[in-house]
Design brief:
The protein has 195 residues and is α/β, with parallel strands linked by helices. It has helices at residues 36-44, 86-102, 121-132, 149-163, 181-192; strands at residues 6-12, 25-30, 62-67, 71-75, 106-114, 137-142, 171-172. The chain is 33% helix and 21% strand. It has a single domain (6-192), classed as P-loop containing nucleotide triphosphate hydrolases (Rossmann fold, 3-Layer(aba) Sandwich), CATH 3.40.50.300.
């Protein structure tokens, strides 16, 4: 993955606005305020390419970023934030579901989960739905820098058990320290090899 040239392409509010072409896409999903934007900025080694906000519900569209000329990274709206209008939440959900179900370019969904907390029902539901739809997904447990090594291992085991996965099926990540970045890039590359 060539990260030297990364540009914001578009904010998509309907399927009709999706970029044309057959570049592979990797989508990033997670609860509101789970650290999605920070993870993307760290991954791309850009400080403010992806807007970071302390206010949950800031991302309200599918935001496409072109990496080199080889792929799109797609920042999906966060889910699970109760203070966003229910109609808007439903609209986001409809757009996200339609995108995930119908986009032939989609290679993987990176499911971002806060390592500090027990698995939330919405995370479990999304993981189960991705599996039922045979959509490749990669769990990434963020904010590992907030915990000691022992706490990291304990929490990761609990999340693994709740998701029904093995440690080799997920990654730990810290946007603050960059730990896990190289491993994540390597794993994403495996989804980009021609099928």
């Amino acid at each position: 993955m060539q990260l030297q040239k990364v540009i914001f392409v578009d904010s998509v509010f309907s399927l009709a606005q999706l970029p044309e072409g057959d570049l592979p896409e990797i989508a990033f999903a997670g609860r509101s305020n789970v650290g999605k934007s920070s993870l993307l900025n760290c991954l791309l080694q850009r400080r403010n390419l992806v807007k970071v906000s302390a206010r949950p519900g800031k991302t309200q569209s599918l935001n496409f970023y072109l990496v080199g000329e080889e792929l799109h990274l797609v920042d999906l709206p966060g889910y699970g934030y109760a203070k966003v209008d229910k109609k808007l939440q439903a609209k986001w959900q409809e757009l996200i579901t339609a995108y995930l179900e119908t986009r032939p370019n989609l290679r993987c969904v990176v499911l971002i989960i806060d390592l500090r907390h027990a698995l939330k029902d919405l995370d479990r539901m999304l993981a189960g739905w991705l599996q039922s739809q045979a959509i490749p997904w990669l769990p990434v447990y963020t904010k590992m820098d907030k915990l000691s090594r022992n706490e990291q291992h304990r929490q990761a085991r609990l999340l693994d058990a709740a998701l029904g996965i093995a440690p080799a099926d997920r990654l730990l990540f810290s946007a603050k320290t960059g730990e896990g970045r190289e491993q994540l890039l390597a794993r994403l590359d495996t989804f980009l090899t021609p099928r």
